[in-house]
């Protein structure tokens, strides 16, 4: 805590902007979809499955704007992307309330709104936290981004239900768009700066060790094309994707999976709540562990939790302790994975193309690990007449990524500081030697 007090005032202003942005970000608002499906389906005369598909398409597809958003942030700076993007995000979200019974139009507007949210918020906050809190990146990712999104989602779920019950789903979208415009937009405009562009109001406006205000192209680290060819990036993406895939396959298919084992829908819903709570704990724990470690093997204990979580599914045959233990272990993994990804990107590749690399990494993990893999797991269970073979495959996948996590390349040396100015030529070669 004493070390955190040493960061300058603009860093904490930027942190406040990140928190307020994440409260109304697409990952937080996705919890409202549960309560929107029924009223939208009734209003337009659609089936629940059709309506759910319309709302799920943007969730799966929108993260693919992150590489472009990262390129814009790396080139123009966080504020230049966040401010206009947030205004458009608010307007697009409110525009959902104006849509008629046309599935293509609704899908398009939801896709635009979600993509703008990812661009102006997710594409920005990781870069800002990385540059302002270089020695506490893990804790920053977990507290300011991951935990904020999870807790906001938990709070928005009942609030959205109340709003829909009292005002209807159209008014609810207008209210969400208004909140984005009145809360997030001012925060991005007045508080969101990076060290390279923050106003210098006094001598402590930048970190003490900073020698200047480097341009984005002068930040130390690897360019995108070189980073994507390294063994470190491929190992990292494989481990993170499979870890997310295994955990989310259990979570998204929990009702049918555990229903087959004798649990009621109410019991399963309670276990999902346990998973969400422990995911916050996993985010914070991973942030603290990674900040205090000098090796990527600090992620190995979380991979052990992944394997233990899939193994305990076999013991979940009616007893609540086994069900809650399973979901708690997998919750820790999902939380840790969301914090570890950006932390690895910063440690391996520096800040030069951080937003682009993080965007591509998050897009792959979202599409394959969260979007595709759970569907394949459900299809495999239906084709085999049960979940036993699927669970065996998930356990084997967990064991494979546990082994791979032991072989993650060590971090390059020296460690990257976002305020270190232009790196010496010899040290650039040092950074790539271990990748």
What features would you highlight for this structure?
mainly alpha; disordered C terminus; single chain
Beta-strand portion reads: under 5%
Quick check: average pLDDT?
Answer: 84
Helix/strand class: mainly alpha
Distance between the termini: 33 Å
For this entry, what is the oligomeric state of its chains? single chain
Compact summary:
By secondary structure, the chain is mainly alpha-helical. 73% of the residues lie in helices and 0% in strands. It contains 18 helices and no strands.
Describe this structure in words.
- This protein has 435 residues and is mostly helical.
- The protein has 18 helices and no strands.
- It has helices at residues 9-23, 26-29, 33-44, 48-61, 66-76, 78-95, 103-132, 137-167, 169-191, 224-227, 231-252, 254-259, 265-291, 300-313, 320-349, 354-384, 388-405, 425-433.
- The protein is globular and about 60 Å long.
- The protein starts with 8 loop residues before the first helix and ends with a helix.
- Mean pLDDT is 84; it is low at 200-217 and 415-434.
List the helices and strands and how they pair.
Layout: H1 9-23, H2 26-29, H3 33-44, H4 48-61, H5 66-76, H6 78-95, H7 103-132, H8 137-167, H9 169-191, H10 224-227, H11 231-252, H12 254-259, H13 265-291, H14 300-313, H15 320-349, H16 354-384, H17 388-405, H18 425-433
């Amino acid at each position: 805590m004493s070390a955190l007090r040493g960061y300058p005032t603009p860093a904490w202003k930027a942190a406040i902007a990140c928190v307020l942005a994440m409260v109304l970000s697409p990952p937080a608002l996705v919890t409202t979809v549960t309560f929107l499906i029924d009223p939208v389906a009734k209003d337009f005369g659609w089936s629940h499955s059709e309506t759910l598909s319309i709302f799920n398409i943007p969730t799966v597809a929108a993260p693919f704007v992150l590489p472009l958003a990262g390129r814009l942030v790396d080139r123009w700076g966080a504020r230049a992307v966040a401010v206009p993007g947030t205004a458009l995000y608010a307007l697009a979200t409110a525009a959902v309330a104006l849509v008629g019974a046309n599935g293509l139009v609704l899908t398009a507007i939801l896709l635009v709104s979600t993509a703008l949210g990812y661009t102006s918020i997710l594409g920005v906050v990781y870069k800002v936290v990385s540059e302002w809190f270089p020695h506490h990146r893990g804790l920053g990712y977990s507290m300011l981004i991951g935990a904020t999104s999870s807790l906001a989602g938990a709070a928005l779920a009942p609030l959205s239900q109340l709003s829909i019950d009292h005002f209807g789903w159209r008014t609810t979208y207008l209210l969400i768009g208004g909140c984005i415009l009145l809360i997030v937009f001012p925060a991005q405009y007045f508080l969101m700066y990076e060290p390279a562009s923050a106003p210098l109001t006094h001598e402590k406006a930048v970190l003490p060790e900073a020698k200047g205000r480097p341009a984005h192209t002068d930040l130390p680290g690897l360019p995108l094309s070189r980073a994507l060819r390294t063994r470190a990036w491929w190992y990292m993406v494989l481990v993170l994707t499979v870890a997310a895939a295994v955990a989310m396959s259990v979570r998204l298919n929990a009702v049918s999976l555990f229903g087959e084992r004798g649990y009621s829908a109410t019991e399963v819903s309670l276990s999902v709540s346990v998973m969400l709570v422990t995911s916050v704990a996993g985010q914070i724990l991973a942030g603290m562990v990674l900040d205090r470690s000098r090796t990527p093997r600090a992620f190995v204990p979380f991979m052990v939790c992944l394997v233990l979580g899939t193994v305990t599914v076999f013991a979940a045959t009616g007893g609540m302790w086994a069900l809650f233990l399973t979901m708690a272990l997998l919750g820790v993994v999902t939380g840790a994975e969301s914090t570890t990804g950006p932390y690895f990107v910063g440690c391996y590749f520096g800040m030069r193309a951080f937003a682009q690399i993080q965007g591509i990494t998050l897009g792959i993990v979202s599409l394959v690990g969260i979007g595709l893999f759970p569907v394949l797991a459900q299809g495999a269970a239906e084709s085999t007449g049960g979940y036993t073979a699927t669970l065996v495959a998930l356990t084997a996948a967990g064991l494979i990524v546990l082994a791979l996590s032991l072989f993650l390349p060590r971090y390059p040396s020296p460690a990257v500081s976002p305020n270190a100015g232009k790196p010496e030529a010899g040290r650039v070669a040092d950074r790539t030697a271990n990748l």
